[in-house]
Design a protein that fits this description.
This protein folds into 2 domains: 225 residues, Alpha Horseshoe (Serine Threonine Protein Phosphatase 5, Tetratricopeptide repeat); 138 residues, Phosphotransferase system, mannose-type IIA component (Rossmann fold), CATH 3.40.50.510. 56% of the residues lie in helices and 5% in strands. The protein contains 15 helices and 6 strands. It has a 4-stranded parallel sheet with strand order 4-3-5-6, sandwiched between helices. Strands 1-2 form a two-stranded antiparallel sheet. The radius of gyration is 22 Å and the shape is globular.
């Protein structure tokens, strides 16, 4: 009897992009939509009609059920089934649009039992083109295409989607695509919506990120999670905040400490985030979100913006919040005291530190994987930095 060879660094396990992998993707996507439904709905409520989270939960719940009832032999079959099910189960525009994307992807995948990453990327591209034709949107119209197309560009980048079955290469390429989808989704905040319900707001849609592209982010996120048959989601951030969760508990789940920068000025918060990220240099930067100014862009503080930024920054290891002064500090303290309806993620702490220098210390420490105590200490160390 010969023993199975141990995987060596030169020989990482292979990942087949087959019906089983995409079946796990459906399961992961359904769970991520359940976890993030409230956030998607809040995005849609700001510029649309507030049903996007519920639509995606219903749609992917139905896809999960259909996939379990009618097991598919090939990825193509699974995508066709998923697309048809979405179109038939979601009332909103997202049903037929995501449905068309998946159906067309399935058609393009054909009858192969497993596909390569470049083949999958090409099929998704066909799906995206079909969405453009169906909905008439072009890049920059603030729709789901503004996340999907950047993600596909990332997959097409030279050296990204190699024709290799190595699990690390595939998940690396899919993670890069997922990050590109997220920056695309965030860029819709600066766009005027020209399609869908959000377009009814005209110029007032500027300043609101669109919900649809954030769903695209979750779908790519699910592709990254799907290789792991044991994956299951962490509970939603808001739900976790109600439990007496400790940061040690959160540390066991992976992820990094998130950072939120709260200034009276939107520009100061954003520029400070950029400065701190630049100080990390290349490599993997911890989640940093700016929450400056009021909802309508004036000088001031917005509990809503701080809360949204904290939810985005939360990866389950705590969130460090830096504020400049006055109402910024008071608003964060009020949120932390629980006197507000908005519940911050578990392990959210205010950092007692000067804004700019503290931000640099905090972001650098979080980016190298420091835990919450280390990150808070790095911020507070900045107080000791004398300049005269
Ligand atoms: P509804 O708009 O009917 O309430 P949802 O809220 O579920 O449906 O989905 C809205 C999302 O659908 C938007 O966030 C947008 O990204 C996407 N969308 C709407 N219309 C279009 C379109 N014509 N082309 C591409 N995407 C669109
Ligand atoms: Mg809607």
């Amino acid at each position: 009897m010969t023993a199975k060879p141990e995987p060596t660094p030169e020989h990482t396990p292979e990942l087949a992009l087959d019906a089983a992998y995409f079946g796990r993707w459906v399961g992961a996507a359904a769970q991520l939509f359940e976890r993030d439904a409230a956030r998607l709905t809040a995005l849609d409520a700001a510029a649309g009609d507030g049903d996007h989270g519920a639509n995606m939960v219903r749609g992917f719940g139905a896809v999960r059920e259909a996939a379990a009832q009618h097991p598919s032999a090939t990825p193509g079959e699974l995508f066709s089934l998923a697309g048809t099910t979405l179109t038939n189960s979601v009332g909103g525009a997202s049903g037929p649009l995501f449905g068309m994307a998946l159906r067309r992807t399935g058609k393009r995948l054909g009858a192969a039992e497993a596909v390569t990453l470049p083949e999958f990327a090409a099929a998704l591209r066909a799906g995206a083109e079909a969405v453009g034709k169906l909905g008439g949107a072009v890049p920059g119209d603030s729709t789901l295409l503004d996340a999907l197309l950047p993600a596909l560009d990332a997959l097409d980048a030279p050296g990204s989607a190699e024709d290799a079955p190595d699990v690390r290469e595939i998940t690396g390429a899919l993670s890069a695509a997922s990050a590109a989808a997220l920056s695309g989704a965030e860029s819709t905040g600066a766009m005027q919506a020209r399609k869908g319900r959000a377009s009814y707001l005209g110029e007032r849609s500027i300043g609101h990120e669109d919900g649809g592209p954030h769903s695209v982010v979750l779908l790519f996120h699910a592709l990254v999670l799907a290789p792991d048959p044991a994956w299951s989601p962490r509970p939603a951030a808001a739900a976790r905040a109600e439990e007496p969760t400790s940061t040690e508990n959160a540390a066991a789940t992976g992820g990094r400490v998130g950072v939120v920068l709260v200034s009276h000025s939107r520009e100061v918060a954003e520029a400070t985030a950029e400065l701190a990220k630049a100080m990390v240099g290349s490599g993997d930067i911890a989640p940093v979100y700016a929450a400056g100014g009021t909802d309508d862009g004036r000088i001031g503080t917005s509990a809503e913006r701080i809360h949204a930024a904290a939810l985005k920054a939360d990866e389950g290891k705590g969130v460090a919040v830096l504020c400049d002064m006055g109402s910024a500090v008071l608003t964060v303290q009020a949120l932390l005291s629980g006197s507000d309806d908005r519940v911050l993620p578990a392990g959210t702490r205010i950092v007692d530190a000067p804004f700019v220098e503290g931000a640099v210390g905090v972001v650098v420490t979080a980016s190298v994987g420091g835990d919450l105590d280390m990150v808070l200490a790095a911020g507070e160390d900045a107080r000791n930095y004398r300049k005269g």
